[in-house]
Amino acid sequence: MKFGKVNNPENIDFYLCEDHPNTKKTLARFKEEKLEFSVHVGCAKWNKQDLKNFYPRGTKDELVYYATQFNSIEMNSTFYRNFPIEQFEKWYDKVPVDFKFFPKVNQMVSHMKRLIDFEKFLPEYLDGVVHFKDKLGTIFLQMHNNFGPKNFDRVVAFVESWSKELPLAVEFRHTDWFNDEVVAEELYNFLEENNVANILVDTAGRRDLLHMRLTNNEAFIRYVGANHPTDYKRLDDWIERIKVWKTQGLSNVNFFVHQNLEEASPLLSAYFIKKLNKELGTDLVVPKTKDGDVPTLF
């Protein structure tokens, strides 16, 4: 992922900003339900070309092996094309019962048509991803960074037409969604009223987008490392924040690791999962390298 890439990450202040005041209030609505704490951690891709040195020699099916090391995938391939139903059925059959796919909405809906006439283009996408059935995680819609609040009516129309049976998360990249307090509160309240997750993006060059406002009982976090030693401290900070949210009522965490050089994503994920297991009592598999050891980057 090149979004937010910088040449000198050591010069970036990676301070994880304080929570929006209403995040605690939102989570409080779920605290008394005492729901089971669920965590999914994964990469954005599973192909061998991007995840070099991850697959053992002789691996015949990359997804099958990937699913032994991770319990989820942030599926960006669905952004670029719609696949036939048969392909989703094959993917479904290759992974364990507790594995989840988190597919990105196709670019025709989000970037090319910019939510205009989405009724014409969304059905083909949905007709495919629903065949993930019980292995379908949260679907996420990512808007272009020049899609601003002047188009808020399109967001309203899209979300209000969305099937409540399908969990949805949305990522906004235009600064005005968050820097204009009036716009931000209107957006946050709308997402919360419709049970839509507000995606959190942690990347070096766009600290202005790290708003820390949860709008439902899901922390959908897209973490972009900088291929730099600071990546570890940043992950430590996320562990601490998730611990706080858990005490406040959070029960769903979906954390996806990207890198400017994606081959490092499994390495960072292994570090994050190992610490997550220790600090929060989860029992996730810690990914290993092709040589069978727990990897480190630096």
From TrEMBL:
Top-level taxon of origin: Bacteria
UniProt cross-references to Pfam families, sorted A to Z: DUF72
InterPro entries, per database record: DUF72, UPF0759_sf
Name of the featured protein: DUF72 domain-containing protein
Organism: Galbibacter orientalis DSM 19592
